[in-house]
Amino acid sequence: MARYTSLFKVVVPIDRFQELLIDSLQSCSLDVIYTSEDYWMAREIPGHVSYAQLVTVEVLIEQAITRDTEVTMSFVVKNEELPLQANNHCRQVFNLVNQVMTENRQWRLIEGVAT
């Protein structure tokens, strides 16, 4: 199973956060299938790759108590594909998600770490 993680800390207006996160995930061809206050799940839209290559993205959200505009997001990008190549489909989606989160002009990136 291929699995990649990243962490982003951003400053964003809380009333726009959900909308911006949905737009960001959708721009990566991901469909948000579950949301709660601190956990989101999105999956790749079927039809372009095999079932084992379909990517799921889990987003763990932590909102700072002292600042209502600082949000930390942990991303887990994974699929059932064995990562036999360094540049596999899951890694490509992971790179795209990281690029979209980093380059989003609607929030201010404080910290971004990809592993």
Task: Give a verbal description of the structure.
With 115 residues, this protein is α+β, with helices and mostly antiparallel strands. It has a single domain, classed as START domain (Alpha-D-Glucose-1,6-Bisphosphate, Chain A, domain 4). Helix content is 24%, strand content 41%. It has helices at 14-26, 89-103, and strands spanning 2-11, 30-35, 39-44, 56-63, 70-79, 108-114. A 6-stranded antiparallel sheet has the order 2-3-4-5-1-6, covered by helices on one side. It is globular and about 40 Å long. The two termini are 16 Å apart. The model has no long low-confidence stretch (mean pLDDT 91).
Annotate the secondary structure layout.
Elements: E1 2-11, H1 14-26, E2 30-35, E3 39-44, E4 56-63, E5 70-79, H2 89-103, E6 108-114
Antiparallel strand pairs: 1-5, 1-6, 2-3, 3-4, 4-5
